Amino acid sequence: MPGPRRRSVLVALLAGRRTDRSQGAILDDLRACILDGEVPPGSAIPVDAVAAAFGVSRIPVREALMTLIGEGLVDHRPHLGYRVAKLTAEEFGEIYLVREALETAALRVAVGQARADDDERAAAAHAALEAAVRAGDGRAYHRESRRFHLALIRPCRMGRLLHMLGTAWNMTEPLQPMTHLGPADRELLHRDHAAMLGAFTARDADALIATCAVHHGRLQSYIALLPRDTGLFADPL
Questions:
Q1: Residue ranges per domain, the chain?
Q2: Could you tell me the pTM of the whole model?
Q3: Given Cys at both, which of 149, 156, 178, 228 links 110, Cβ 3.0 to 4.6 Å?
Q4: Does domain 89-223 match CATH 1.20.120.1200?
Q5: In sequence order, what DSSP letters do the residues of 144-212 get, joined into one string?
């Protein structure tokens, strides 16, 4: 006799969020739950239960899921339903290469257009990242690392490039790769961040790009060591 059905992690998370039933709010809440990494890749997304959590019909939930499919965050297969999307390990590494190319292009422009208030935002983001490192909080480190990188990139004010970079970044977020690192590895990455901040505030584009290249090389080496047996990666194509 089958045991009691387990409650979906996603539905449990949604139960504690806001009660706004608008289409935009449903999309934002679903996206946020996935990007926070609390709903692992491969997790089922029960449409009826999600609709009940929002107090709406299945239609707006399906519309939101279709948008998330377009963003690469959700998969849908006939007879299997909706799931948080998985990437193969190779695809995951490829997206990091895309991120590096886009970030490098953005940084070269951003460092030439940055102002004093951009420096302040970057310094504040770096301080929050420092606190996460010292606290040994992997999820906070992951979140604040993205905030720091974006603080250096946004002064480029290139909307389409920033959108492409955000989309690529989102596709890797559900796996939360930085949470798999040990304290020593996070410390090494944080030293890169300090060097990047120094080059940014000094308006030294060459030093910033060089440090960014070292940083991304380090990231690729860590990605190659991520565990393959946890079920978070898709099977090779």
A1: 9-84, 89-223
A2: 0.86
A3: 156
A4: no
A5: HHHHHHHHHHGGG--HHHHHHHHHHHHHHGGG-GGGGS-HHHHHHHHHHHHHHHHHHHTT-HHHHHHHH
Report whether CATH 1.10.357.10 matches the domain 9-84. no
Radius of gyration of the chain (CA): 19
Task: Decide: 222 and 185 in contact? Cβ < 8 Å.
Answer: yes
| Cβ–Cβ under 8 Å, residues 177 and 68 | no
Structure tokens at 133: 């490192």
